[in-house]
Design brief:
α1 packs across α2, α5 runs antiparallel to α6 and α10 packs across α11. Helix content is about 55%, strand content about 10%. A hairpin with a 4-residue loop joins β2 and β3. The longest helix is centred in the first third of the chain and has 27 residues. The radius of gyration is 22 Å and the shape is globular. The relative contact order is 0.12. It starts with 17 loop residues before the first helix and ends in an 18-residue tail after the last helix. The strands form 2 sheets. A 3-stranded antiparallel sheet has the order 3-2-5, sandwiched between helices.
């Protein structure tokens, strides 16, 4: 349920937005986000590898292929850890350790030792996070620069103190701070400009909670529930921003009452940082992963995005930055047709019309 980027507006015109830009170009959901993180992580690894080569009197692009591959995989994992933490799936302690483990594994694969890489990953994440708190009143650009610089430098120093290479730690610290703290700051900034105060966010969360209780009391979605071991409950929802008039469409799933599943999805939802507070349950269906019910919800999410103006990556005007279903997703016809069968068509098919077949049976 991570079609989380909302809309791209950058009033100050001064923020680094490479990851959402690449994801928007690729056009769809988690796969596009992972691809963007892979490209950014791989490219930064190639640059650091090249600089180290020049220092050692070697050709700049020597070993660039392996550097890009390792850096790309590390980038995806690093960004994924941040996503998991933002969604409330892991706690702060687990997040710190996970970044350390990634650093250790990368160091080991590159011929270094695990401990120095672990130190670089853990320390750089901690320092970059604290720098972000200390610089919250800076402009976005300078806040990003200070977080990356402090993360990279602390990674290099901690790696050296742990008996490893300063350059290797510098690279790991750069990647950790860029693809964790800064990348997720970018996602939030792409939502609706400036992040609101903690007090304002708390008020918005209370408003969302009240809204979910209103839905329950009004009987909307009454009886919609499932239990662990039974069929999974899939649902689409909308979030509305009364200040901008924009609507975001998302999807989520789980076991239990629909209200509880929706409430859990709202915890840490990036829209709450930017004024989206009127939540509604749209449609729901029961089934396993890659069942017709799952397909129907995937298709419904994309039709709702199109209905509300289309994804920004398509040149649309909805609050969704990227599509729910990529134009070239091999299941795109199945998703759309199942949505039509379950809920009725609310918007015509907008994927590529080339007849690529369904990926799953």
């Amino acid at each position: 349920a991570y079609n989380n980027p909302l809309m791209y507006t950058d009033p100050s015109g001064e923020f680094f937005f490479l990851i959402p830009a690449v994801a928007g170009f690729l056009g769809g959901g988690a796969i596009a986000t992972a691809a963007a993180a892979f490209i950014v992580g791989g490219a930064s690894a190639v640059i650091f590898n090249g600089v180290a080569n020049l220092i050692n009197g070697q050709p700049f692009f020597q070993g660039a292929g392996s550097a890009f591959l390792i850096g790309g995989i590390s980038g995806v994992l690093t960004f994924g850890i941040g996503n998991a933490a933002q969604a409330g799936l892991i706690g702060p302690a687990t997040q710190h350790i996970a970044h350390g483990v990634i650093g250790g594994v990368v160091s080991s694969v590159e011929g270094g030792d695990f401990f120095s890489g672990f130190a670089a990953g853990l320390v750089s994440h901690t320092v970059a996070a604290q720098t972000g708190k200390l610089t919250k009143h800076f402009t976005r650009t300078w806040r990003a620069v200070t977080m990356v610089a402090s993360g990279a430098l602390s990674g290099g120093i901690s790696s050296k103190l742990a008996g490893g290479s300063f350059m290797a730690g510098l690279k790991q610290g750069f990647a950790t701070s860029l693809l964790n703290q800064v990348a997720h700051e970018v996602w939030d900034a792409c939502l609706c400009g400036e992040r609101r105060s903690d007090a304002a966010i708390a008020e918005q969360r209370e408003a969302v909670d009240r809204r979910i209780n209103e839905l329950r009391n009004a009987g909307i979605g009454a009886g919609v529930a499932t239990v662990a071991g039974g069929p999974r409950l899939w649902l689409t929802y909308t979030l509305y921003n009364p200040e901008t008039g924009l609507t975001y469409t998302g999807r989520t799933s789980g076991f239990g009452p629909a209200y509880d599943i929706l409430r859990a999805r709202m915890l840490g939802h990036p829209y709450l940082f930017n004024g989206y507070q009127i939540v509604d349950i749209d449609q729901y269906a029961y089934g396993s992963w890659y069942s017709d019910a799952y397909a129907a919800i995937r298709g419904r999410e994309q039709q709702m995005i199109d209905f509300h103006g289309g994804a920004r990556s398509d040149g649309g005007t909805s609050a969704n930055l990227i599509r729910g279903v990529s134009r070239i997703n091999t299941n795109r016809f199945w998703y759309h047709n199942q949505s039509n069968a379950h809920f009725g068509e609310i918007y015509p098919f907008t994927g590529f019309s080339s007849p690529i077949g369904r990926l799953f049976p």
